[in-house]
Design brief:
The chain has 305 residues and is mainly β. The protein has a single domain, classed as Neuraminidase (6 Propeller). It is 8% helix and 39% strand. It has a four-stranded antiparallel sheet with strand order 3-2-1-24, with no helix packed on it.
């Protein structure tokens, strides 16, 4: 038996290396997807106040003295929805808040609203109550409150509107805390990731702006999965107890925010990760809130107005 060996000349090797370098340069220069919203400021909470900071860690500013449990910026980057035993909106630059549940005092008082997400057209908001475990939808004007699934469906958490507007993803406690999605028009539900899957049980998640994948946190790792439930991959560093909660994609989809305590630190910080690989090999991690003296929670990357 004979074998043929292909010999590459020194000049051939140089040409190959040059070609690889050109391909890498082109890959790195690919801009965000068409139609992606430009990145604006990052907002976060210390449980007592709402703060704003630039992605490079500069221009730290207190926006409002408000206790919050979640933050979500409107698609036009002008309005901030926040929750704390109720659902409120206010200008992102600061200003008087609007109580969206003032017409619905029973829900405002007893639901324990702790999470909200804007529809991509900015006309409606989906939200959940930690006390009653129901998911609601309301117009941005504060009118038209409705159950997403009906009054008797409980055990539902963390609804996030898909970038296409066609679906709302959520965590269903009664199905083992599985990550699910419901078609807004038809009401048909589908499984994205089972709560007893190999990554563990999802706690929080966010859609990529393209709508084609979802990043989620399951103690104590971060994961990415295609929105059809395929191609699960780890995006947190392969190190013990190094992971990031409160995941939130940048408006242009190139980065991902998360919250974690720095190694050897005592305060919770906001970190920026690569929007594809996270902190895993091929990605990056760097701290955003190093200039902030306290603990930072609930990061929200707003689009530029």
């Amino acid at each position: 038996m004979t074998y043929r060996t292909n010999v590459v000349s020194p000049w051939g090797k140089v040409a190959i290396l040059m070609l690889l370098a050109m391909v890498s340069a082109v890959a790195l220069s690919i801009p965000p997807r068409a139609g992606a919203a430009p990145n604006g400021p990052i907002l976060f909470s210390d449980y007592k106040n709402i703060w704003k900071i630039q992605p490079d860690g500069s221009k730290l500013k207190k926006v409002a003295r408000r206790a919050v449990w979640s933050l979500d910026a409107s698609p036009n980057g002008k309005t901030l929805a926040y929750t704390h035993d109720g659902l409120f909106t206010m200008p992102i630059k600061g200003g008087r808040p609007t109580n969206l549940l003032r017409r619905y005092p029973i829900v405002a008082r007893f639901a324990g609203v702790n999470w909200a997400s804007w529809a991509p057209n900015g006309k409606r908001i989906v939200f959940a109550g930690q006390n009653d475990g129901r998911i609601y939808v309301i117009k941005a004007s504060g009118k038209g409150l409705a159950y997403l699934f009906g009054k008797n469906r409980t055990g539902l958490l963390h609804p996030v509107w898909s970038p296409t507007g066609r679906e709302i993803a959520y965590i269903d406690v009664r199905k083992g805390s599985s990550l699910m999605a419901v078609n807004v028009k038809s009401g048909k539900t589908r499984l994205i990731y089972p709560g007893d899957g190999p990554a563990g049980t999802p706690v929080d998640f966010d859609w990529h702006p393209s709508g084609d994948r979802i990043a989620f946190y399951a103690p104590y790792r971060d994961w990415m999965i295609d929105s059809d439930g395929s191609d699960l991959r780890q995006i947190s560093p392969d190190a013990a107890f190094v992971s990031y909660e409160n995941l939130d994609f940048s408006p242009d989809g190139t980065s991902l925010l998360g919250r974690s305590v720095a190694s050897g630190g005592t305060t919770s910080e906001i970190w920026e990760l690569d929007g594809t690989f996270g902190g895993a090999p091929g990605g990056f991690v760097h701290e955003v809130t190093s200039s902030f003296g306290g603990s930072a929670f609930f990061p929200e990357w707003a689009p530029k107005p």
